[in-house]
Design goal:
Number of strands: 2
Number of domains: 1
Number of helices: 4
Strand content: 5-15%
Radius of gyration: 20 Å
Oligomer: single chain
Helix content: over 70%
Distance between the termini: 34 Å
Low-confidence stretches: none
Structural class: mainly alpha
Strand order of the largest sheet: 1-2
Largest sheet: 2 strands, antiparallel
């Protein structure tokens, strides 16, 4: 008897690992952006900036939350699939849901990361010119955007594996 796992089992396990990694990176990105605030002293008193004062950071938080919710759902479905060997949803629809869901969520996550990087660079330059660097504030936001970018990479790799599982129609 051959004891080597089938390529289907390996693929399911790889997708599960990718979903766990995406979950971890989204969770850390969520925590970093949610606690992000900065204070700078000026002649008129301290100025405080929080992540929710900047629309692009609120968008980034929204993409993290949406990606987190989708990934949590897919994580549960993947665990069930690996443990039981069966899919919760039978038929071709489940494969299409996985594929298109991964594609849409990965691009949404990427857009959140890009908006975070873009506004961080623009505003950091602006505040630095005003002699208000807010270095730690923008460092945390950039760290969150970086983790979001890594989560995009894991989700996009998972979408490659889910595309391989699509039913072949002739």
């Amino acid at each position: 008897m051959d004891s080597t796992p089938s390529s289907s089992t390996i693929s399911k396990s790889v997708v599960l690992v990718l979903r766990v990694l995406t979950f971890v990176f989204l969770l850390i990105a969520l925590i970093l952006i949610a606690i992000d605030k900065g204070t700078e002293d000026t002649t008129n008193g301290p100025i405080e900036v929080k992540f929710n004062d900047i629309h692009a950071y609120r968008y980034m938080l929204s993409t993290i939350v949406i990606g987190f919710a989708y990934n949590l759902l897919q994580l549960g479905l993947s665990i069930f699939n690996v443990v039981s060997g069966n899919r919760v949803i039978s038929g071709d629809g489940a494969y299409f849901f996985d594929f298109f869901g991964d594609k849409i969520i990965s691009y949404l996550i990427l857009s959140g990361s890009a908006s975070g990087f873009g506004v961080s660079n623009d505003l950091h330059s602006f505040f630095k010119a005003q002699e208000l660097p807010f270095n730690s504030f923008f460092a945390k936001a950039n760290a969150s955007a970086t983790l979001l970018l890594i989560a995009f990479l894991f989700t996009s790799i998972a979408s490659i594996f889910t595309s391989l599982a699509l039913p072949k129609k002739t």
